[in-house]
UniProtKB/TrEMBL annotation:
Residues covered by the BTB domain: 132-191
InterPro entries, alphabetized: BTB/POZ_dom, SKP1/BTB/POZ_sf
Species annotation: Caenorhabditis nigoni
One family name in Pfam for this protein: BTB
Stated name of the protein: BTB domain-containing protein
Underlying gene: Cnig_chr_II.g7664
SMART domains: BTB (SM00225)
Length: 290
């Protein structure tokens, strides 16, 4: 899946031969630092891209072009093809062997690409097996599962498969209002040979973990947020509060280690979404610095 182009046009900068940063931008989830230096008599331009924010939103890759222009035509406009697969990636270009002062600008045009759904993996995960004894139907697709395994992890499925519900006696049970890929993502997080969460999947996993009463999934995500995630502390506090992750909430409150950080959180829209209990904890943290 692709999205509309992400574009940026820099201001004109003058490069006199001394290593320097020419432009810094932060737009559409892309941070870009443009710098220049001279090496072996040639001017070199560097663009350091950081698109971790887009990666956390599900973008898998960026492709496109950087176009450079020199106002005095010391060199013709040049176009560089870029293929950004790492979230922090530097693009370099040697542009001239002259010692002239350059007055230059650049623009980029990048297309974000999303990774395809792991449908093949989910098909294998939900294939018929002697270990499975019932079938769930999601978006018309049959998912072969073990009643005992799902019931052990989930009070939702424990109730669904019980004799108290008519579904418990059915050979096929339809699960509505969830996609096949999302259910596959959910199950893959706690099935044998699990696929571990990342910053792109944590919110969906928390949402589904709450809906299907899977405390195991909530705890797996909490471990990721505690020890691996690059999500900012403000959003982490909201996630911890919203999904009852007490250890994470305590850690995030401790990380408000200055009056400025604590007061800044109070001004964000997410603050109004917090429970009164968490607001009191934040205000208490503010009072420690007063």
């Amino acid at each position: 899946m692709t999205q509309p182009l992400l574009k940026y046009q820099s201001k004109t900068a003058t490069f006199t031969g001394t290593a320097s940063k020419l432009d810094i931008s932060d737009l559409n989830g892309i941070k870009c630092t443009w710098s220049a230096y001279v090496r072996f008599g040639a001017e070199h331009l560097n663009w350091k891209f950081d698109w971790g924010e887009l990666y956390n939103q599900g973008v898998d890759r960026l492709t496109g072009y950087i176009t450079i222009k020199e106002r005095n035509n010391f060199f013709p406009p040049q176009t560089i093809y870029v293929d950004l697969k790492e979230t922090v990636h530097t693009v370099s270009k040697a542009i001239s062997d002259s010692e002239k002062q350059l007055v230059i600008s650049f623009k980029y045009s990048l297309t974000p690409h999303h990774a395809p759904p792991e449908t093949d993996f989910y098909d294998i995960l939900f294939a018929p097996s002697h270990m499975n004894d019932t079938v769930l139907v999601i978006e018309g697709k049959k998912i072969h599962v073990s009643k005992a395994f799902l019931s052990y992890h989930s009070e939702y499925f424990e109730a669904l498969f019980s004799k108290k519900f008519k579904e418990g006696s059915l050979s096929e049970i339809e699960i509505k209002e969830v996609s096949y890929d999302d259910f596959g993502l959910l199950c893959s997080s706690f099935y044998p040979y699990p696929q571990f969460p990342n910053d792109r999947t944590v919110e969906k996993l928390l949402e589904l973990g709450r809906r299907f009463l899977l405390r195991t999934v909530i705890r797996i995500v909490e471990h990721h947020l505690l020890h691996i995630s690059n999500i900012g502390v403000q959003k982490m506090i909201w996630l911890a509060d919203e999904y009852g992750m007490g250890v994470l909430l305590e850690k995030c409150i401790r990380e408000l280690d200055s009056l400025e950080k604590a007061k800044q959180l109070k001004t964000l829209p997410e603050f109004e979404k917090l429970t009164d209990k968490t607001k009191v904890l934040i205000l208490g943290r503010i009072m420690e610095f007063v």
